[in-house]
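Hi everyone,

Forwarding the result from last night's run.
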Amino acid sequence: MRKTARLLLVGVGVALVLATTLVVADIGASKGTGGESRIGLIDTASAATPGTADASATVSASGSVQATNNAHAAERGTSADNRYQYRVLDDGTVVLTRYEGSDKHLRIPSRIKDEDGKDRSVSRIGFMAFSGSHSLLSVKIPRSVKTIDAYAFEGCRSLKKIVIPTTLISVGQEAFARCSSLKSVVIPASVTSLGGYAFAGCRALRSAKLGRGLDEVPEGVFDGCTSLKRVSLGSHIKDIRGDAFHGCANLWRLKVPNALQAISDGAFGRPHDPTGTYVVITPRAAITKLQPRNGGLVARWKKSVSGDSEGYQVLLGQGRLPDTIKTISDVFKVISILASSRVVRSGGSDTAKTIPLLRHRKSYTVWVRPYRTISGRIYGGDWSHPKVAKVR
């Protein structure tokens, strides 16, 4: 009776909700037995989401609405605590379609009771389910959830913390876009699909970690994340898509895995490293000896064993750097501090480089790093610790 009543309400309200979520299909298009016309009510969100079902009803000649015995009829309702609207999926689990609460710190339930009192597992967070929930400060997603649909938490401007379970598989497009207070995010290894622009416009985001389940950094995933400083990429990342880090003005260094094969045009806003780019490949080299020879210097190094490289870059500058300059970010100051700074290249099988025609009785500081060409551009690894020698 409750299902029949709900179907009756749906039939009466079709004209009112036609412009939002329901589409009336095949009205009077086919006649059944007893002079009945079949009306199919198609939820547009269900149509875009695999595993959902369509509600349907039959209308008799007298105008009464009768429920059809359709195994795929979608059940909708509100949870017993009136905080969540839901839709029942084909497997008997539910997708949360709308949050009606005002919590600040929310633990999304792994199970809810439907309108008939039946206990059901929550397997999905639906399209725009929590979008614009400005009261939320933190959210913990249960292990029962396998999918977060597009725009699910979009525009939750007060949200500072999101806990994603290690059982999640898929995150939709712009799922957390414009969560302007979000501080950090960790995508677990279980996630194999991450939608484009998923965290775009998260202006307070400072750190992000993408798990090894992903094979690409999606298009625009961190677009406009102006506070982003630290990013850890999974070991299986092969591609960084366009606009992935566009507008990340504070991301001065990104270490990429050996698996990386392509970086799309526009993936980064601009190069910061004066010798090429701020993207850093995994391998590292170490200078073992720097000695004068015939008016120049010979630098020797230990080959990298932590990843592939096609060659090495040797950076040198005349003079000594202050003791405070030790890290890679500080090496960027070499160009402005040391005279005659330049970079020379060496082949991938080389372990030494002769740098001729240097100034007599002058000291030079030298670094070395491996490099690799990706999508037509040269990307280097971390610079080695410096060595200093005087030309004789």
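Residues 1-73, 271-277 have pLDDT under 50 and may be disordered.

Cheers,
N.
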